[in-house]
């Protein structure tokens, strides 16, 4: 299993190289078509035309687009991600500060969405053919009809404003100071440094964004798992299990669920990639200082160096989550290890 998983990861890394080249080229070329002047935004007020031309040469913007792309890629390979023209800080510093917040948010959203989806899917299967299944089916349809950003607004209105039960702005209470950075992940750092106040504040600030992101995932998992379980219990080995005297609970939990979960794992992988994209609007609505918020600020201020790198980071995150799901799928399906 370990050798096959390692081969799978290496294969995914090799396949990721041409994908990253294509995505980086596409992002770079499209941004060059945007009517924005990063040179003018990089200069202080009162700069002369000579300053403008000097800055343009320094940024490499006086060359052709292929040459500019090569300069950018060469810099990335040397670990130079450029400097933000708006924040006046290295892009790597901005991304490394915002990325852990988004990863924590998506990880918790995937966990919550999966738990709700698996629990609801099992319930729909247990209630199949009854009025309870129809009610759940109607409820999931209604939930899926509302987009993530609208859920975010509704949650703020009801649980943040009307009933001020949970905080809905930022990542921490203003009175709480940040713990010393160890890993860059706030939840881990608060645990390592024993700052329970930071942990509690961070978790309460994550509740509403996590619900907004996960509430769209749960109904999809419920439906796919319910359908997979219905197909699985029609298999011959399930009939043989019944003949051996196993109870329905034992059959479902020890035999049917493992095979029925395979399509659900694939779905979670796909939706995990989409969830990273969904953080852009959700983080902006909750003023959550993650990668999505950084992207919105960069686009709003025509900060091309930041937009380029953040777009590429999103691509890497999607590829990484797909590779992780492939390994989980491999572990859950013994037939793939034989093939």
Largest sheet entry: none
- Number of helices in the DSSP assignment: 15
The tally of beta strands, per DSSP, is 0
Helix content: over 70%
Could you list the spans in which at least 5 consecutive residues all have pLDDT below 50?
Answer: none
Rg calculated over all Cα atoms: 24 Å
Beta-strand percent range: under 5%
Terminal-residue CA separation: 12 Å
From the spread of the alpha carbons, the general shape counts as: globular
Which quaternary structure do these chains form? single chain
Sequence of secondary-structure elements: HHHHHHHHHHHHHHH
- Mean pLDDT equals 87
Overall structural class, as computed from helix and strand content, comes to mainly alpha
Q: What can you see in these coordinates?
A:
The protein is mostly helical and 339 residues long. Helix content is 76%, strand content 0%. The protein has 15 helices and no strands. It has helices at 2-32, 38-42, 49-58, 65-77, 91-126, 131-144, 148-162, 186-192, 196-214, 217-232, 236-243, 248-285, 291-300, 304-332, 334-338. Helix 5 (91-126) runs antiparallel to helix 6 (131-144), helix 10 (217-232) runs antiparallel to helix 12 and helix 12 (248-285) packs parallel to helix 13. The longest helix is centred in the last third of the chain and has 38 residues, at 248-285. It is globular, with a radius of gyration of 24 Å. It starts with a helix and ends with a helix. The mean pLDDT is 87.
